[in-house]
Amino acid sequence: MTTPIYYVNDAPHIGHAYTTLACDVLARFKRLDGFDVKFLTGTDEHGQKVEKSALAAGVDPKAFTDKVSQNFRDLADLMNFTHDDFIRTTEERHKHAVQDLWQKLMEKEEIYLDSYSGWYAVRDEAFYGEGELTDGPDGKKIAPSGAEVEWVEEPSYFFRLSTWGDKLLEFYDANPDFIAPQSRRNEVISFVKGGLRDLSVSRTTFKWGIPVPGDDEHIMYVWLDALTNYITGVGYPETESGEYAKYWPCDLHMVGKDILRFHAVYWPAFLLAAGLEAPKRVYAHGWWTNEGEKISKSFGNVIDPHDLVARYGLDQVRYFLLREVPFGNDGDFSHQAMVNRMNGELANDLGNLAQRVLSMVAKNCDGKLPVHGEFTDDDNRLLDAAGLLLEQLRDAIDRQSFNEGLEMVWVVIRAANGYVDSQAPWKLKKEDPQRMATVLYVLPEVIRRIALVLQPFMPDTMARMLDQLAIDPGKRSFACFGEGHSLLPGTTLPKPEGVFPRFVEEEV
Ligand code: ME8
């Protein structure tokens, strides 16, 4: 699976963290579930936009990209991301892959030389037709994305995109899960049905890009260059063996809704035209705003993930981003919403459950997991609900429905809290110690199952929770989820400690 490769014109923000986080959770989940995962991310370093940013910073583009690309690696460290490779489009391996793909397209006569005159938005690195534009202030023309466009006239190579419309429509038809969510699929299909024009795939008016083989006047269009990273990452142009043979076609390209057209129209067209396989799925997620406002450097409201993590804690931020909005929808970041989730669901629901259960075991059972008696219907109901979580999460994860998956876990957490209240083990100590032992066995076992399935979302805190249940690190994969790996009565548990602090507002 892949993330977009991010432009290095800017510092990374919460939106970049979000996309890679979604992939990280998927990658961790699949690895725990026994799959061989290749998870690719990186930076998109060529093009006019990056060149302009370098000029504005007064440094040459290579020095500039080295510095900013490092910021994206630092973000990955901060967020505890587990990508297997970080690709930079300025690397030799990538230049080699893109030039090879170009040559294949040339050989198949999918590319021809002509000249381009039309509108271009540097911010989007995209061409626009006259009919798509609106009038902005000062007589400027504006693209549907809100970016300003400029008139461009230059010699250019073109890709015969216009001949791929019907084949793309057939491809979407044959692969109903290729574009997700469904609403986005409909958008793409109607765009393609509207007719495709040939796509300009080279530029001559600036130099920061990969040269077109055999024609040094031209550099490649940055999107052709950038999209190819997905196959560079698996060793293209070697296709017969190695990682390409093993991992391509890729299971999932995760992207934001802003760049769906590039991934669901241009990219499969390039690949099919070159005689290569298209990816299996493109998921376009929604857009974050900050306290209701569009996130933008010019509004001064960019949310720096470093600040968020310092303030609320890493796993709290990871949880919030995937819990707060149905994946695919737009979401709004607000301090209040973050604190509500952090205090209500993490500190109260899950944190308190673990803390009070493990404290009772420490106090009433000599710090050892008690030996349980016969399970009652209430016990079995709760154990069974927790036992179903893995199957439920597998299904949600395969649909990238993160918040649905988390909600299913919270249904069990709430049920477990209800069970603590109704069984009242503190009352049983004198009245019925055997029953208390059973209740204080059932609850840690339920917490074990909850913590196992939450590992991909909150790896550090769940590791600490599993430590407190004295579960061997070798017994934390999903192969050890089932009843056969239930907690062993008599095991001594370490001293319990809270893992989810409450957020307390500072006095102003
Ligand atoms: O488009 N909310 O790079 P980019 C949610 N280099 N996600 C957001 C977001 C927000 N407010 N802001 C950014 C590019 N993103 C190209 C990609 S891929 C071959 C080339 C995320 O740096 C989201 O995933 O502009 C979006 O698609 C991506 O960052 C755009 O990153």
Briefly, what is this?
The protein is of the alpha/beta class and 508 residues long.
Question: Which keywords apply here?
Answer:
single chain; 508 residues; Isoleucyl-tRNA Synthetase, Domain 1; 4-stranded antiparallel β-sheet; 3-stranded parallel β-sheet; 19 helices; 18 strands; 48% helix; elongated
Write a structural description.
The chain has 508 residues and is of the alpha/beta class. The protein contains 19 helices and 18 strands. The protein has helices at residues 14-32, 48-57, 61-78, 92-107, 165-174, 182-193, 222-227, 229-232, 242-247, 260-273, 305-312, 314-323, 335-364, 377-387, 389-398, 402-423, 425-431, 433-454, 459-468, and strands spanning 2-7, 40-44, 85-88, 111-121, 126-128, 134-135, 141-142, 150-159, 179-180, 199-200, 202-203, 211-212, 215-220, 253-256, 282-285, 288-290, 293-294, 331-333. It has a four-stranded antiparallel β-sheet with strand order 5-4-8-10, covered by helices on one side. Strands 1-2-3 form a three-stranded parallel β-sheet. It has a three-stranded parallel β-sheet with strand order 9-15-14, sandwiched between helices. Helix 2 (48-57) crosses helix 3, helix 14 (377-387) runs antiparallel to helix 16 (402-423) and helix 14 runs parallel beside helix 18 (433-454). The radius of gyration is 26 Å and the shape is elongated. The two termini are 45 Å apart. The model has no long low-confidence stretch (mean pLDDT 96). Ligand ME8 binds at residues 4-7, 15-16, 18-19, 44, 226-227, 229, 255-256, 258-259, 287-288, 295.
